[in-house]
């Protein structure tokens, strides 16, 4: 340790996504390579001398206590803990966070040093990992509300790689084995399944950490929700969700010193007939065990919906990932003018 392979891999992974702004301190971290990155980890972040850095990832992060503030973080996985190096602008973004962080008033505003807050979740405190639909994000749950956060990778490969690395590191933990399961009789085994609600697919790791994946019903529920938002759909059964992706809606802000674009996180859902944008709650569902009441907002809230038949053209930018798409719709006042005629003429 560190092996050549690890040095090469963390150097390749140490790239900030272009679409979200970061502070000077995180830009410094993103400029480190190879051995310098490992030395930085041991000199500034690691809490134990013998822990090893295993994986590095850049991701947007949401905290359970502050679900409306998405912040860029450098996520470092070691053999002892998961470290989240946070953009320092996050601390001042929300007045409720002063209690959350217990940050003292520092006199470093005019200092040449650039500080970052580091949120630490020890692997021994980890209880479960919920993987979102199509691996677009995952939620890490510890033992209290302060220890729940969601990584919005918006990328199935990043999610899959992190989960694999996390499982490998958890396998090194020495934990007491789970108690032997109690043999169930025939009636209790089959009687409990008549609730009508299928449980999510759970994989219990040897370290007793649960990895929870969405089941088919979650897509069914989402399809039903989308169908409710579609007026005049003759048959809800025919609705298929073709694409689910976490994206950003670009809002152009004029009048500032230089015109800027603000990015609003949105869930884009494409069906065979419509294009929808939803505001999704990525962190409150499924409810943590200690939650005493349901969240204040629904998991999915419709932000915009347009019919594909009204789509006039799609404009594509020439920049590299993330790709910008502009959908131009031809909005007719009386949208359903031709609908009945078409159905009568061509049948089903």
TrEMBL record:
One of its GO terms (biological process) is Golgi organization. The keyword Cytoplasm applies. GO terms for molecular function: kinesin binding. Pfam families: PH_NISCH_C, PH_PLEKHM2. Keywords: Cytoplasm. InterPro entries: PH_domain-containing_M2, PH_NISCH_C, PH_PLEKHM2. Residues 112-178 form the PLEKHM2 PH domain. It comes from the Eukaryota. It is found in: Cytoplasm. Residues 241-347 form the Nischarin C-terminal PH domain. GO terms for cellular component: endosome membrane. PANTHER family: PLECKSTRIN HOMOLOGY DOMAIN-CONTAINING FAMILY M MEMBER 2. This is NISCH protein.
């Amino acid at each position: 340790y560190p092996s050549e392979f690890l040095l090469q891999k963390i150097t390749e992974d140490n790239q900030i996504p272009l679409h979200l702004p970061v502070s000077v301190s995180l830009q410094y971290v993103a400029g480190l390579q190879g051995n310098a990155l490992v030395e930085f980890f041991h000199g500034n972040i690691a809490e134990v001398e013998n822990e090893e850095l295993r994986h590095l990832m850049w991701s947007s992060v949401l905290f359970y206590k502050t679900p409306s503030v998405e912040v860029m973080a450098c996520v470092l996985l070691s053999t002892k803990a998961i470290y989240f190096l946070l953009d320092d602008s996050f601390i001042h973004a929300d007045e409720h966070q002063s209690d959350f962080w217990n940050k003292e008033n520092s006199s470093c505003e005019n200092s040449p040093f650039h500080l970052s807050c580091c949120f630490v979740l020890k692997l021994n405190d980890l209880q479960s990992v919920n993987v979102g639909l199509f691996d677009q994000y995952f939620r890490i749950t510890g033992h209290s509300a302060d220890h729940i956060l969601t990584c919005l990778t918006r990328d199935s490969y990043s999610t899959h790689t992190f989960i694999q690395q996390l499982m490998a590191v958890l396998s090194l933990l020495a934990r007491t084995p789970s108690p032997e399961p109690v043999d169930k009789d025939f009636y209790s085994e089959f009687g409990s399944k008549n609730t009508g609600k299928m449980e999510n697919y759970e994989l219990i790791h040897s370290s007793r950490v649960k990895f929870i994946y969405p089941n088919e019903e979650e897509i069914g529920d989402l399809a039903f929700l989308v169908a409710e938002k579609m007026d005049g759909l003759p048959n809800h059964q025919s609705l298929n969700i073709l694409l689910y992706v976490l994206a950003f809606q670009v809002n152009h802000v004029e009048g500032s010193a230089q015109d800027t674009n603000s990015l609003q996180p949105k869930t884009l859902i494409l069906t065979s007939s419509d294009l929808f944008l939803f505001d999704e709650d990525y962190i409150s569902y499924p409810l943590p065990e200690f939650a005493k009441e349901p969240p204040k907002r629904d998991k999915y809230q419709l932000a915009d919906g347009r019919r594909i038949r009204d789509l006039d053209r799609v404009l594509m930018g020439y920049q590299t990932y993330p790709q910008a798409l502009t959908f131009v719709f031809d909005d007719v006042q009386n949208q359903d003018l031709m609908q009945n005629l078409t159905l009568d003429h061509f049948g089903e």
